[in-house]
Design goal:
Layout (H helix, E strand, L loop, with lengths): L5 E7 L6 H14 L3 E6 L13 H12 L5 E3 L2 H4 L6 H12 L4 E7 H4 L8 H7 L1 E5 L8 H7 L7 E4 L8 H10 L9 H10 L6
Parallel strand pairs: 1-2, 1-4, 2-3, 4-5, 5-6
Helix pairs in contact: 2-9, 4-6
The structure holds adenosine-5'-triphosphate and magnesium ion.
Length: about 200
């Protein structure tokens, strides 16, 4: 029997996208043998508050960052929906697009994993998709405790250590506002786009 099609779904503010995002997506793609990873910028993250940069710019930067990896597919489906954007709706869309046989893998960082039990319709999410939790410096994952809080996670989740790059959008926004370097922490195309459009001048 042929292997099922395995697809990654990677949501985030991407405000802005950086090498930490790209490196973990590539790590998960390689570890799980994903055919592709969809990068899905969030219109508005219910648990997080409003993103700082308008969606069109965040999407443009995601497109630039994904351009040189044929397996990375920018997807604006959450930006085209009226807010708030919930992961369950995105997963349902992917399930409808790819049919029941596809294996859907949600990619999240260790810090976001802590919030999982509070996600809207999380048991439905875990019925439709599996979760790859990726290590992040400064954030440990207690999987047994997480499974106590969220029993539906059992058998539906893998931990992937990842390259553990200590890069965050919060730090990059501060750097940009202060005129400090961001080079080598994000693709040059994204860095030049930010400069060209004068983004993140004020924190
Ligand atoms: P912010 O500082 O604005 O929260 P961020 O760097 O955390 O930005 P997000 O867009 O919030 O980036 O992250 C999207 C997803 O990527 C989340 O699941 C987050 O945990 C994960 N992630 C982001 N950066 C890293 C990193 N360096 N290592 C591992 N996971 C990461
Ligand atoms: Mg974050």
């Amino acid at each position: 029997m042929a292997q099922p099609l395995r697809l990654g779904i990677y949501g985030g503010s991407f405000d802005p996208i950086h090498c930490g995002h790209l490196a973990i997506a590539e790590e998960v793609r390689s570890t799980l043998g994903l055919a592709s990873v969809a990068f899905v910028p969030a219109a508005h993250q219910p648990l997080k508050g409003q993103a700082r940069c308008p969606p069109d710019h965040r999407l443009a930067m995601v497109r630039l960052a994904c351009a040189d990896n044929p397996a990375f597919i920018p997807d604006d489906l959450e930006l085209r929906r009226p807010p708030p954007s919930y992961t369950i709706n995105t997963i349902e869309t992917f399930r409808a697009r790819h049919g029941p046989a596809a294996e859907l893998w949600l990619i999240i960082g260790a810090d976001a994993a802590r919030d999982l039990p509070r996600w809207r319709r999380v048991a439905d999410i875990l019925g439709l998709a599996r979760v790859a939790i990726v290590g992040r410096p400064g954030h440990s994952v207690d999987l047994p405790a997480l499974e106590v809080a969220l029993p539906a996670l059992e058998g539906r989740c893998v931990l992937i250590d990842g390259p553990r790059l200590d890069i965050s959008s919060t730090d990059l926004r501060r750097r940009l506002a202060a005129g400090r370097p961001v080079r080598y922490q994000m693709p040059d195309t994204v860095r030049l786009y930010i400069a060209e459009h004068g983004l993140y001048q004020h924190d």
